[in-house]
């Protein structure tokens, strides 16, 4: 086969500088540019678009969800504010990594910064998944166990978020050891001592278990909880419809004489007028709760749909290895092992771009499912004063609602 080129192998052995090139990021990127140019161009074009849209959208989302009007009687706003900030942080880190690969500008090749970057990059991704899991779990409890869910109020939500952040950082701490500046090529890479078999086993086992648990198992749990929430919503809707029909049939079968009916209506008029505002407030409260549920379900399902394919490919990548080395770049396409590697890598690059969208597209879900978010977002973009548009329903919702999860979006 072409990759068993004895002349090329001898040339590498006689030239240490040429041999060291094989360990550089530029060599790996050059291989991909030569053999999968379409996938690499997609990466270079789509990722900057995601970064621009996502950074702008997450800034707007964080500002709107942090607005006191959104946080009133609404613990979901705390989670969504932190999720917007976490997504924004990840996109900034993604921009820095893109400068390293594929643009080869080497922004990570500094001792200390290399390790911190790798730890922060993993931690913020864990944190995003934890936040989606947390507000999904709270929504599940509020639907199935409404009395128990009252313990998840405004006072506990910040502590839960801080706890989740602590867990994310703790799980990513080993990255400080796994990464280092390569002693020969001077680039941020896996620590060279990980070439020992025992340490490779620890690195592979820890990374494989933690990432599959966070990016694989947790999204599946979120899927199960959301399915349960949808099932509950469907059953509650049927129950309400059945109750309304039963009440209507009872009313029609128990009619009283016109004179008595008129007298009772007149005597009850004052009570009905007194209860009218409370009824309106309850209706608006139910509408707000339904809007919150739609928002949280949309974010959760978007995460699942975009993350699980990427996680599946991550689990499969151990089965797809590099082709034989050393091998000239122009000869790799003729080797079957290298062809399999390039085909898998092409799919992985495209799926990575799709997966990246879940850090970008939440703002569109917010605008589609929450009228109040859309109004405040427009006001924020146009720099209007939020005081100019009075929200008279807010006071009613404060009175009508208790501090349950997610009300008031």
From TrEMBL:
Superkingdom per UniProt: Eukaryota
Residue numbers spanned by region Disordered: 243-289
GO MF term list: G protein-coupled receptor activity
Alphabetical UniProt keywords: G-protein coupled receptor, Membrane, Receptor, Transducer, Transmembrane, Transmembrane helix
One cellular-component annotation, GO: plasma membrane
Feature: compositional bias, Polar residues: 256-266
TM spans (from-to): 45-65, 77-99, 119-137, 158-177, 205-231, 294-316
UniProt protein name: Thyrotropin-releasing hormone receptor-like
Record localization: Membrane
């Amino acid at each position: 086969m072409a990759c068993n080129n004895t002349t090329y192998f001898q040339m590498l052995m006689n030239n240490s500088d040429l041999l060291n090139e094989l360990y550089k990021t530029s060599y790996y990127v050059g291989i991909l540019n030569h053999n999968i140019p379409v996938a690499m161009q997609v990466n270079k074009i789509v990722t900057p678009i995601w970064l621009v849209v996502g950074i702008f959208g997450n800034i707007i989302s964080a500002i709107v969800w942090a607005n006191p009007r959104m946080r009133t009687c609404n613990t979901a706003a705390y989670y969504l504010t932190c999720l917007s900030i976490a997504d924004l942080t990840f996109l900034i880190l993604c921009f820095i990594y893109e400068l390293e690969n594929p643009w080869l500008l080497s922004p990570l090749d500094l001792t200390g910064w290399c390790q911190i970057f790798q730890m922060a990059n993993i931690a913020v991704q864990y944190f995003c998944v934890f936040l989606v899991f947390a507000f999904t779990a709270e929504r599940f409890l509020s639907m199935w166990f409404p009395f128990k869910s009252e313990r998840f109020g405004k006072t506990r939500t910040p502590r839960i978020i801080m706890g989740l952040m602590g867990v994310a950082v703790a799980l990513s701490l080993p990255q400080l050891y796994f990464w280092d500046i390569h002693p020969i090529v001077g680039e941020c890479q896996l620590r060279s001592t990980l070439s020992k078999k025992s340490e490779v086993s620890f690195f592979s086992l820890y990374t494989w278990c933690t990432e599959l648990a966070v990016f694989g198992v947790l999204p599946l749990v979120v899927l199960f909880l959301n399915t349960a929430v949808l099932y509950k919503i469907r059953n509650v809707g049927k129950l309400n419809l059945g109750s309304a029909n039963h009440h209507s049939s009872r009313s029609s079968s128990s009619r009283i004489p016109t004179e008595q009916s008129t007298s009772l209506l007149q005597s009850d008029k004052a009570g009905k007028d007194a209860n009218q505002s409370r009824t309106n407030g309850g209706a608006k409260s139910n509408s707000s709760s339904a809007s919150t549920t739609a928002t949280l379900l949309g974010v959760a399902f978007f995460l699942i749909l975009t993350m699980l394919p990427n996680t599946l490919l991550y689990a499969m990548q151990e089965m797809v290895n590099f082709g034989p080395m050393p091998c000239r770049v122009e000869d790799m396409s003729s080797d079957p092992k290298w062809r399999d590697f390039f085909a898998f890598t092409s799919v992985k690059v495209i799926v990575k771009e799709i997966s990246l969208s879940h850090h970008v597209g939440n703002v569109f879900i917010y605008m589609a499912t929450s009228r109040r978010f859309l109004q405040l977002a427009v006001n924020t973009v146009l720099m209007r004063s939020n005081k100019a548009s009075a929200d008279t329903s807010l006071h009613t919702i404060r009175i009508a609602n208790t501090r349950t999860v997610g009300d008031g979006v």
